[in-house]
Amino acid sequence: MKKYILLFLAFCSFSFIGNAQPPTFDDLIILYADGKYEKLIDECLKYNDKESTSKEPIPYLFLAKAYYGMSQKGDRSEEFKNAFKSACQSLNKFYKKDKGEAYRAEDAEFIEKVKMAAAEVAMNEFESKNYKKSASSALLFKKTSPNNLGADFLNAASKFIDNDRSSAIAIWKEVEKPFMSLTELGTDSPADLIIYKAAIVETVKCMINSKQVDRARKIANKGQELIQEEDFKAELDALF
Description:
This protein is mainly alpha-helical. It contains twelve helices and no strands.
C-alpha cells in the first residue's frame, strides 16, 4: 500500500510541475510602480541568480528600469553613481534573454527613452571634444541598440580624432562591409537615427582628412541611400 501511495504522490508532483505557470513578477511591478528602485534592484538580482528564473527576461527589464530610475535621482548614493551605465547594461542582457522579442513592444517607450539618453550622452561628449569619453559612450549606446552600426562608426571616428588611428582603422575594417551591404537601417528609432547621421558625417570627415576620398564618397552615398532626408544629404555633399 505504501508503494502505491508513493507512486501516486510522485505522479501528482510531476503533474504539478508540468502545469506550473511561469512567474508573473507582480512583486517587481509593484516595487517599480511605488518607485522603490533600490529594493527593486535587490529583488531583480535575486531572480537573476535563482536557477529557475535566471533565463527569464522580465527581471532584467525591471533591473534596467530600476537603475534608470536611480540615475534620475539627484540624491542617489555613491553606490549608484554609475546607475545609468548599469541600466544600459541590464537592457542589453534583457535583449539577450528576450530571444523571441516577445516583451520589447510592450516597453518600447522605456527602451527608446534609455536609447535617447545614451545617444545624448555620446553626442554631448563628442561635441565637447571629449573623444575618449565619446568613444566609450558610443559603446554604451551600442548596449542599448546592438544592431546599430553607427555606434561603431562613432566609436572609430572618436578614436581617429584622438590619434588612436590603429584602433579606428580596425573598427572600420570590421563594420564597413556590413554597413555597405545594408538595404535599410531596420529601425525608425529617433535615437538610432541621431547616432547614424552623426556617425556617418564624422566618418566621412575622417576619411577625407586621411586622403581616402573615394572611400568616403562610398560611405556618404550609402548613408544618403539609407537616410532619405534632404538636409542630411546636403550636409554630406557639402563635405566634398
